[in-house]
Design goal:
alpha/beta; globular; five-stranded parallel beta sheet; 15% strand; 14 helices
Length: 413
C-alpha cells in the first residue's frame, strides 16, 4: 500500500485542463438543483458555468459572495449528501465533482492574489463574536459587509476552531485556513486570541461595549463513555487529533489501535493513524452501514488506507486493553484488543460562562438565532441542527442577518 505524507492533501487537485473538462460535463440546468441543495448558497451551478466559459475570476467572485470559507468547504464539505446529490448528471453517469471544481477556483484565487473582499465601512456600530470557528468567521464577514465593526474573541492561541485543531492536515492544510483568515482580517475584522469570555473578559462587558453579541463557541470537548474511564491507554478522539495536528504528525504511534465510533471524527482518527504508520487500525461503530454517520468521502478514504471497519456493534465491557462488544440486532459478542483505544462518540460544549442565555447540556435555544437575552444571538454547533462546516457557514450568515434586522428595527423605532 502506498505511503502518504500527513502534511500533503490526500485528494489531488484538478489541473486547469481537467477542471474545464469536468465543468463541460455540466448540463447547465436552468434551475440548478445543485445550487438549491447547498446550505451555504455557494451557487455551484453558477460558478460551474463560469468555469465552462473560462471565466475563472467570475467563478471565484460567485463563491466568495456566498461563502467566506469557500476553500475550506471545498475540502471538507460532504458534497455527496448535499449539492452533488442534486446533480442532474447523476441520471446519465455520475455527478459533477463540485468540491474539486470549487477547490480549483479557490486555489486559482489564492495563486493570482485576487482581492474580492473590500474593507468594511464600520458605520453601524460594534458587534462582538465569541468563537473564531467557521460560524464566527462567516458571521464576521457578513456583518462587516453590512457595515458593522466586528471583533472576534477566541480562547485559543490561533483562530479557526475545529478547522485548525481537529481536521487533519491531509484534509485541510493549515496554509489554506490561514489564507481564509487573512482575507477576513484584511476586511477590518479584529480577532483577539487567548481571550476567553468568563476569564479575560466578561459577557456583561461585551454586552455593554457592543450593540449585539453572537455566540459561536463550538463543541470543542470530546464525550466520554463511563465504561472507558478505567481503560488502559485510552484517549478522546478530539484530543488525539489536536495532538497530531499541533505536532505536524510527528507523534509516537502504537502498533494497533481500536476506535469506538463511526462519524467523520472517527474516520479522521483512523486515517491519521494509518498515514502515520499504525499497522492495525480497527473502527467499531454501533450504527450499521446503511445508516453510517460518516460522509461517504471520509468512509471511502479510510477504507482505501486499510482501516478495518466493523458496523453494528456497541461496547459492553472493558478489561485493560480488551473491549467486548455486542451486536445491535444479532446474538453473540465480539472481543478486540489494541494498544491504543480512542473514543469518538460525540463532542460537548463548554457553556458555563453563558448562564444568561439558559444553555442546555450541549446547546442554546434560539428563536431566529436570538437567545433568551435579546442582545445575544447564537449560531454554529451550539444551536440545533446539522454539525458540519457548511451548516456552520449557513448559520453564521443567517445569524448575522438576524442581528442586522434586530438592530435596524431598534433604530427605526
Amino acid at each position: 500500500m502506498p505511503q502518504h505524507n500527513y502534511l500533503e492533501e490526500l485528494t489531488p487537485a484538478f489541473t486547469p485542463l481537467l477542471a474545464i473538462k469536468e465543468a463541460s460535463r455540466c448540463l447547465l440546468c436552468h434551475d440548478a438543483p445543485c445550487s438549491q441543495a447547498c446550505p451555504a448558497q455557494t451557487d455551484p451551478g453558477k460558478f460551474i458555468r463560469s468555469i465552462y466559459f473560462r471565466n475563472l475570476k467570475g467563478a471565484a467572485e460567485t463563491i466568495r459572495e456566498n461563502n467566506a470559507l469557500g476553500a475550506v468547504c471545498a475540502r471538507v464539505c460532504p458534497t455527496e449528501k448535499l449539492c452533488q446529490s442534486g446533480c442532474s448528471r447523476s441520471g446519465i453517469d455520475k455527478p459533477i465533482d463540485i468540491a474539486r471544481l470549487q477547490r480549483f477556483i479557490t486555489d486559482f484565487e489564492q495563486q493570482t492574489a485576487m482581492k474580492i473582499y473590500q474593507p468594511g465601512t464600520k458605520t453601524l456600530g460594534k458587534v462582538a463574536v465569541i468563537g473564531a470557528g467557521p460560524a464566527g468567521l462567516q458571521a464576521s464577514v457578513t456583518l462587516s459587509n453590512l457595515g458593522y465593526d466586528v471583533t472576534i474573541y477566541e480562547k485559543q492561541a490561533q483562530p479557526g476552531g475545529w478547522l485548525r485543531h481537529g481536521i487533519p492536515e491531509f484534509r485541510l492544510p493549515q496554509s489554506v485556513l490561514d489564507s481564509e483568515i487573512v482575507r477576513i482580517v484584511e476586511m477590518g475584522v479584529q480577532i483577539k486570541c487567548q481571550c476567553e469570555v468568563g476569564k479575560q473578559i466578561s459577557l456583561e462587558q461585551l454586552k455593554t461595549e457592543n450593540r449585539a453579541v453572537l455566540l459561536t463557541v463550538g463543541l470543542s470537548a470530546g464525550a466520554m463513555l463511563p465504561l472507558f474511564k478505567q481503560a488502559e491507554n485510552m484517549e478522546i478522539a478530539v484530543d488525539f487529533l489536536q495532538r497530531a495536528r499541533q505536532a505536524g504528525g510527528d507523534i509516537a504511534i502504537a502498533q494497533s489501535a481500536l476506535i469506538i465510533g463511526g462519524g467523520d471524527v472517527a474516520m479522521d482518527v483512523a486515517s491519521t493513524l494509518k498515514m502515520l504508520g499504525c499497522p492495525s487500525v480497527t473502527c467499531v461503530a454501533r450504527e450499521e452501514l446503511a445508516e453510517f454517520p460518516a460522509s461517504q468521502k471520509e468512509f471511502a478514504s479510510a477504507q482505501a488506507l486499510g482501516v478495518s471497519i466493523i458496523d453494528g456493534f456497541t461496547p459492553i465491557d472493558v478489561a485493560g486493553n480488551k473491549v467486548t462488544f455486542k451486536h445491535a440486532r444479532l446474538p453473540g459478542a465480539l472481543t478486540l484488543e489494541a494498544e491504543h483505544i480512542i473514543l469518538a462518540v460525540g463532542q460537548q460544549a463548554h457553556l458555563d460562562a453563558f448562564t444568561a442565555v439558559q444553555p442546555q447540556r450541549n446547546h442554546i435555544d434560539t428563536q431566529g438565532y436570538q437567545t433568551a437575552d435579546p442582545v445575544i444571538f447564537a449560531a454554529g454547533d451550539i444551536i440545533k441542527g446539522d454539525k458540519t462546516v457548511v451548516y456552520a457557514v449557513k448559520t453564521g450568515k443567517e445569524a448575522a442577518q438576524a442581528i442586522h434586522h434586530h438592530l435596524e428595527g431598534a433604530c427605526s423605532c
